[in-house]
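4.2 Preliminary Data

To establish feasibility before requesting continued support, the project team ran the inverse folding procedure on a target of 115 residues. The structure was first converted into the token representation described in Section 3, and no sequence information of any kind was made available to the design step. The complete token record follows.
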């Protein structure tokens, strides 16, 4: 039988979920700013993107997921620089070259630790 507290508990759960989503978004924005400023590599930013997601899976990131995370970072960076198209193109190209170089060197997309 539901109690008067059930709606409050449900609201707290939604609030906690929304707070976690905002924190993840801030973490991704921080990583994007770090890449643009040259403080983070593409792979480091991808690791932060993974950590910002709902999955805190400690297992190694499958190569296909690591490449997908890197491509997400490239897309976010391009979008963040959309007001400066030449800069967006240059930074996106640099990141794409970084990804291709890493994949050619290592054959996988292993990500460094984010924390």
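Position-by-position output of the design step:
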């Amino acid at each position: 039988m539901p109690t008067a507290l059930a709606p409050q508990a449900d609201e707290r759960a939604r609030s906690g979920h929304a707070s976690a989503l905002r924190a993840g978004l801030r973490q991704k924005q921080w990583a994007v700013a770090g890449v643009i400023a040259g403080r983070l590599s593409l792979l480091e930013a991808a690791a932060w993107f993974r950590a910002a997601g709902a999955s805190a899976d400690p297992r190694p990131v499958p190569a296909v997921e690591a490449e997908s995370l890197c491509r997400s970072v490239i897309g976010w960076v391009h979008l963040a620089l959309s007001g400066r198209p030449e800069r967006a193109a240059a930074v996106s190209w640099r990141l794409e070259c970084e990804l291709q170089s890493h994949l050619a060197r290592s054959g996988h997309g292993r990500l460094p630790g984010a924390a």
